[in-house]
Amino acid sequence: MWQYEKKLQYPVKIKEPNPALAKIIVSQLGGPDGELGAALRYLSQRYSAPTREVQAIMNDIGTEELSHMEIIGTILYQLTRNLSIKEIKESGFDVYFVDHTTAIYPIAASGVPFTASYFQSKGDPITDLHEDLAAEQKARTTYDNILRLADDPDVRDPIKFLREREIVHYQRFGEALRKTQDLLDSKNFYAFNPSFDK
Q: Where are the domains of the chain?
């Protein structure tokens, strides 16, 4: 089903480690609005999408979110490579280090590990697509917040790329929602089961 290209969708070349910055960026890997939740959300929801075209949109975006996990993982690796114990302690990275050393682990910036409760798959395309639209906006806002806190251009460039992709995904999900709404009977706009509108 997938063809794996062994290169990042956007290059990451961070020269200076910064574990304090890694502590916040990790949220986009395993946080409530991160890439792991997005990939699982869309790849799960695609099965109940109403048309092949909407399924394809969900599949495309879900697959791209997997590549975004690779970008975030690479950023985290480069921000935490070759740290001294002194740097780990001084940056506050010691709390993460105790459990994970400098391995990449899906966790929120708050320290909460990834959980499937971060996303929903309802089976109602209107419900699912509205969740997807909201998810993309929440991810964009998280990237906005990271950009407010990051001043290293080597970090900011791939983060800006990821933020732009959230905007494109929002637009694609808007397209999928319009296509889905066009298929529904106007009397049955919000109910997936037509028998409710008798």
A: 19-197
List Cα–Cα distances, 49 to 26, 57, 179, 194, in angstroms. Answer: 31, 10, 11, 17
Residues of the chain with pLDDT under 50: none
- Show the beta-strand stretches assigned E in 55-193: none
CATH class entry, domain 19-197: mainly alpha
Model pTM? 0.91
The two structure tokens encoding residue 192? 């997936």
Return the pLDDT at 150: 98
For residue 132, give Cα distances in angstroms to 124, 136, 159, 167, 189.
12, 6, 20, 12, 18
Backbone angles phi, psi at 90, to 5 degrees: -65, -30
